[in-house]
Amino acid sequence: xxxxxxxxxxxxxxSDISILFNxxxxxxxxxxxxxxxxxxxxxxxxxxxxxxxPASRNTYSSPLFHYYCVLFLINHLIQEKRFLFEGVIVNSLxxxxxxxxxxxxxxxxxxxxxxxxxxxxxxxQILKKHFLLFxxxxxxxxxxxxxxxxxxxxxxxxxxxxxxxxxxxxxxxxDRWYGSLWDNLSKEQKLETFFVxxxxxxxxxxxxxxxxxAQLSVRNYIFKENYLTLKDVIFAFGHTKRIRKIKIQKISLxxxxxxxxxxxxxxNNSDINTVIESILTYRFIDRFNQAGGEVRLAIDxxxxxxxxxxxxxxxxxxxxxxxxxxYRPTESFPLYLSSYPxxxxxxxxxxxxxxxxxxxxxxxxxxxxxxNLDTIVIPSFKSQYVWKFKENKLSQSKYxxxxxxxxxxxxxxxxxxxxxNVCNAIPIKSDTIKLLIKPHPAQSLSKIKNxxxxxxxxxxxxxxxxxxxxxxxxxxxxxxxxxxxxEAMACGIPVIMMxxxxxxxxxxxxxxxxxxxxxxxxxxxxxxQALKYFIKLTPENIKQQQIDCEMVREDYFxxxxxxxxxxxxxxx
Length: 572
Description:
42% helix, 23 helices, alpha/beta, six-stranded parallel β-sheet, globular
């Protein structure tokens, strides 16, 4: 019986096809960068272009890299005579045309290409988009009003250090982005350092509370909304009209015209909130300059997303003498392309002048596509605990397995169900092993519980938000694309990393790390073998792990020093 090939962005490939898709995607990273470079050159000075998905190379939110690699996937399957599908599902009308042409030109018979959306569903999406724009406009105007009512903190009349950051409920004093940075600044450094927050994952009802809470914090904050005007908001929302004027030059891939696909994404960006926030960030920098503000140093929380691009372009245009440092606190994933700078981005001034890295091991990877990128190594402000970590397992009667979940609820449920199936297959004895599941900080525990069956007594969900607290009593970590992998291994805790069986795997484990500290698993059998291996580790294996974990600490977690802090704030 023939299968259906699901090539939708975030669709579900079968396991064999997924392995091939990952292989092709890794091979095409550099070529895709050249593709983005080509379509970006005519728009190199255009802010509206750089805050959009195609230029971002953000493989989480932009589907362009996915489509780029899928075309090579289908072509490979056809050439190898492995294209045995009766249908193909897409969720892009432009890509549907391209796939139909490829299949027709390759003389593939009896295979139909289906679009996910009917015209009725497309109409609903258009209405939803317009409603979302109205809501975002109302929300942003409300933020401007709130900031003017509560007032602003006094800003010293001297050159400042501005730090790009985020705010969300529960993470004001507990900084999940910069960790212990503030606590390690000198008195003089604190007087000149101000955080510039972007609100994320904040319900409308919590906006006022979050502003007030941040205003009372010991940290210094500058709210963008205190400088922005209604004119800026209108300009930001005018992006949806301006973007239609951007003309994409004709560009082909394997002989098929791809420019219509780029234009489709420009006109149907699914993350319009981030686009608007990025433009407003750019306008804030302009307004701060007009208000007479002086900036000695601009620090960007760097993942290469559109917000980063707007921040760096703004400082280049309005504070050309200000040094720009990008804070890249963790080793990134090879397929998270936006976090790897490329030459066209430096030419467009949408990346920092210098990249600040929390460990020397990261220097080798961040320069992959830009070898002469300037870098500095700074303390791992987020993860200094790895140098003081001491296991607390002496009183434990059970082998503790900590499971950290991704932000996606659906994938979180899939992981939990896989674990239940594996535990039933081994089987797990509840008196010897305990699995503790920690939801992503941005996810609701209750939402996850509502989608789960009754859990066996050896599996439980925790409300504890601190990963470090949980790690002290952990024997083994199970997770997927998460920075917690390196942190756990640096503490001597082995890791099982679950690969995505249905799509791209965002692998968080660098090649430099010893394989004695982790196992990567795709199937239930692989997961069973990995669990058994780590549960039955010999004293010799455990001793070797302790040696290997020291190398992880040294490579990826720079110790805290005054010199390191001064290097980050450019005062050394």
